[in-house]
Amino acid sequence: xVILDNKQEFKMHVxxxxxxxxxxxxxxxxxxxxxxxxxxxxxxxxxxxxFLRNEYHxxxxxxxxxxxxxxxxxxxxxxxxxxxxxxxxxxNLQVENAILVGHSMGGxxxxxxxKEMPDMVKKVVLLCSSGYMKRSHPSLIFGSYxxxxxxxxxxxxxxxxxxxxxxxxxxxxxxxxxxMMDGYxxxxxxxxxxxxxxxxxxxxxxxxxAEDLRKIETPSLLIWxxxxxxxxxxIGERMNRDLPNSHFFSLKNTGHLVPEERPDFVSExxxxxxx
Length: 275
Prior knowledge:
Elements: E1 7-14, E2 17-24, E3 31-35, H1 49-52, E4 57-61, H2 79-92, E5 98-103, H3 105-116, E6 121-127, H4 138-143, H5 149-169, H6 178-185, H7 192-203, H8 210-213, E7 220-225, H9 233-242, E8 246-251, H10 258-261, H11 263-274
């Protein structure tokens, strides 16, 4: 079990929605913001935080509708709007200069935030970041308007189960324990998340195209698992070519959950990158 001391939990209303975030105070140290991926939460950083908390003032955010953040069906779940949530939260916390660390979808949110507010984002760390994904298929978007579409999402996710989903995102299945399964399944006991995911299907505009990536001058560190089955390593290699100021590392025998599978290596590369 990972025990994290000095964690403070808060909720702030941002963009009209309650956003849960956690703070590991370290006054005077650089501010680092941890942004999780799709179907995840701040829980996914629990193994990386112990490596980082002595060197950074950490803020871990639950993006809506995930984790303990509000699961509203009125919120617009576009990547641009989620990036604005992160930006507004940091402004309210009087953070003027931050390092963003984004895993999977959180990497894409970090890039959107960097595009929107380049002066606020000092550096970006992309851990198996989503990349080059298009909008959902029109038929899926159309279906999301039906009142009980969320029950289809719930059925599909329940049929797959947390064990099967975790097997898809880690390379070494022996690391999957009860704590891990409980942590990832907990937010889905609330039916409102499935309603929000229906809304997200039609709001998500897709990942930033190559022409936008080429305009992002923010220094970027890309870390990938070579056995990533969710966002294959060639996506990271392509993003490294498109981002003009980036550095790329890949890890053997590592899947999609690099913050959990290789927190030691990830933290070392972050320390080197952020000097």
